[in-house]
Design brief:
This protein is α+β, with helices and mostly antiparallel strands. The chain contains 21 helices and 20 strands.
Length: about 650
């Protein structure tokens, strides 16, 4: 009997030594597996803000996580977490033998795994490095990795990783994300009850999600508070006050995307240079003003709905009808608002940037400004008469006989009246007088691609996006200074370091007095011309309509003393709009609605254009005429007879 006992003891000792040796071997064999936590760099959410610090959107790939370093985690959060999850956290070395022994007894009695004994370190290892299956092999590995982790990281580093890695339900990873998501608060602004709600969630995130199971979440939070009171970490008065609290909970979408066309544009611009833009935890500050973005959205929708209302009984209307709008700060070129369509959910295609359409007559001001800088004056006269042009297309000779929209002719007409009423024939004849080569040379400063080398340039036969048109019109909005539209201002990394600052870029293209001549003419377009539907009482609005053949594209390009707004409407399939739709009817009212909302919200905005030095006035025939040193008033009228010339 003694012999048998000795062998049993020896075998037991041998088995113990073998087990110990295996565990030591396993400990060193898997030690490298904690490296992802030692050099912890999880995917982090990039946030995009408007110019006033308002959140435009959260951008991420799979996990919505806003990272917070340990130094920024309030002590109450740590206390509450340790109280409910791992009271001896600061005393053990990765595992808690007492808790394990207690759990083993309960598991033996139940004949299955019914209770865990995981420390916070083990929970971190399990959630980031292992699966959640309840197998003895996994539990052994979990314990060994936890012990190993505690050898290479401090307790504070483990807590930082835990609170940033753990899932808090509702798609939120990390406690900062959950605090902002559920309560719209930073961590240091949370109440004790709100902290208790959050630290109580990791045990069962779905069951304790306060947006779906509010009562469960509050009951769990009260258990956290009770545990803190039992440990003496809060007093009775605090406990009684907090268990009665019922914090407000927000049920937000994860992205909180309040300006999807803007967000898409920002990410697309940065993606090539910063491939990790969706997971690097960047902070992106834009020039956008969320308030203006909303005003623009309402205005564009107004124009869209008005079109459908006008043609409610027309069964031939294309369902691809859509619009775009760009709003710039007239003095800097900052993009304050941008809509690439009426409804991003239905069509995310950004027409403001990617849709190249013909501007039609909206391009005419650049031809007329060229004439002014060559010595013409708004009162200079040009022939508004019919001409026929012969050209060759391949081996075929063809004739081009352009017409005015009104199908009439005015004979000799001033530059001002030709622009105010958008006379096609007068503009073509003006291009003829200037010369195509001279016009091209003068327009080179804008860097416009594929400008036609023929008279069709007079009718805006060019492919430009609304954002490109906004860039061009900035030269009038800021009295001769051309601004490059700026959408992104600052880019910061996840540590708050400035990575890139985008400077404003601009150049003086026209002398201020010359630009003012055009501003005055475009103001008349709105006062009494094709842009009448854009008038706003008590405010100077200047702009130009644009309508291409068969109303395929309709535009209104406008500006005020402080702001610039470009609107386009058309069908995505390039088919004509309904009859009688023009830039003045379809697009101009959108500008009016936008500016009206703007001045109502900001009555301090400038109402009148300021006249620069170098602009002179003279009374003639009861009219107040303006001129400059470059553009003197014409000495006399030149009125040749109407003629038809074949070229």
């Amino acid at each position: 009997m003694r012999f048998l006992l000795r062998w049993i003891v020896r075998l037991g000792f041998l088995a113990g030594m073998l087990l110990f040796g295996y565990l030591v071997y396993l400990y060193f064999e898997i030690g490298h597996e904690v490296e992802p936590l030692v050099h912890y760099n999880p995917p982090k959410t990039t946030q995009i803000f408007d110019r006033n610090g308002k959140l435009l959107a959260n951008v991420f790939e799979k996990e919505h996580r806003l990272y917070v370093p340990y130094e920024q985690i309030p002590g109450r959060v740590i206390e509450a977490l340790v109280a409910i999850e791992d009271t001896l956290f600061f005393e053990h070395h990765g595992v808690n033998p007492e808790a394990i022994f207690r759990a083993i007894i309960k598991d033996i009695k139940a004949r299955k795994l019914v209770e865990g004994a995981s420390t916070l370190t083990q929970q971190l290892v399990k959630s980031t490095l292992l699966t959640r299956e309840k197998k003895i092999e996994r539990k052994i590995k979990e314990a060994l990795l936890s012990i190993r982790l505690e050898q290479v990281l401090t307790k504070e580093e483990i807590l930082e990783r835990y609170l940033n890695a753990i899932f808090f339900g509702h798609g939120y990873y990390g406690i900062k994300t959950a605090a902002l998501g559920y309560f719209h608060k930073d961590l240091d602004k949370l109440s004790l009850k709100e902290i208790a709600v959050l630290v109580g969630m990791p045990k069962a995130p779905s069951a304790y999600d306060p947006t779906r199971h509010y009562a469960n979440a509050m009951a769990r939070a009260n258990r956290v508070l009770e545990r803190m009171k039992t440990l003496g970490w809060i007093d009775e008065a605090t406990y009684m006050r907090e268990i009665k609290a019922a914090p407000k909970v927000y049920d937000d979408t994860l992205t909180q995307n309040r300006a999807p066309y803007i967000v898409d544009a920002v990410v697309n611009r940065l993606q090539a240079k910063y491939p990790d833009i969706r997971r690097g935890g960047y902070r992106i500050e834009t020039a956008v003003d969320l308030e203006y973005q909303q005003m623009a959205r309402v205005a564009l929708k107004f124009g869209y709905d008005a079109y459908w209302k006008r043609h409610a009984d027309d069964g031939n209307i294309s369902d691809t009808f859509n619009g775009a709008m760009v709003v710039l700060d007239g003095r800097s070129g900052d993009v304050l608002a941008m809509l690439g369509g009426v409804d991003h959910a239905k069509s995310p295609f950004n027409r403001a940037i990617s849709s190249k359409r013909q501007p039609g007559s909206a391009f005419k001001p650049f031809i007329y400004e060229t004439a002014l800088n060559l010595g013409y004056n708004p009162e200079s006269k040009i022939p508004d008469i019919a001409r026929t042009y012969r050209f060759e297309e391949g081996d075929t000779e063809k004739l081009w006989q352009p017409k005015n929209y009104e199908k009439d002719y005015k004979g000799m007409i001033t530059l001002r009246e030709a622009l105010v009423h958008s006379r096609n024939l007068a503009t073509i004849n003006l291009v003829n007088e200037i010369g195509i080569m001279t016009l091209h040379k003068r327009l080179d400063v804008f860097g416009i691609e594929n400008l036609p080398y023929n008279l069709s340039i007079a009718l805006g036969n060019i492919a430009l996006s609304p954002l490109q048109m906004a860039r061009l019109y900035s030269v009038f909005a800021d009295m001769g200074t051309l601004h490059e539209p700026r959408l992104i201002v600052n880019l910061y990394d996840n540590l708050g370091n400035l990575v890139e600052h985008i400077e404003r870029r601009s150049k003086q293209v026209y002398p201020k007095p010359q630009a003012y001549l055009m501003v005055d003419m475009l103001r008349d377009v709105v006062r009494r011309g094709t842009g009448r539907n854009a008038r706003v009482r008590g405010m100077d609005v200047a702009g130009k309509t644009g309508t291409t053949n068969n109303s395929v594209d309709t535009w209104f390009c406008s500006f005020t003393p402080d702001m610039e707004a470009i609107v386009w409407f058309g069908n995505d399939d390039n088919t004509p709009l309904a009859k009688r739709e023009t830039g003045g009817r379809t697009a101009a009212p959108v500008v009016r609605v936008f500016y009206q909302a703007l001045v109502k919200k900001h009555p301090e905005f400038k109402r009148k254009f300021e006249e620069p030095e170098g602009v002179y006035h003279v009374k003639r025939g009861g009219r107040d005429l303006i001129y400059t040193d470059i553009s003197p008033l014409p000495a006399e009228d030149m009125t040749p007879a109407n003629e038809e010339i074949i070229f």
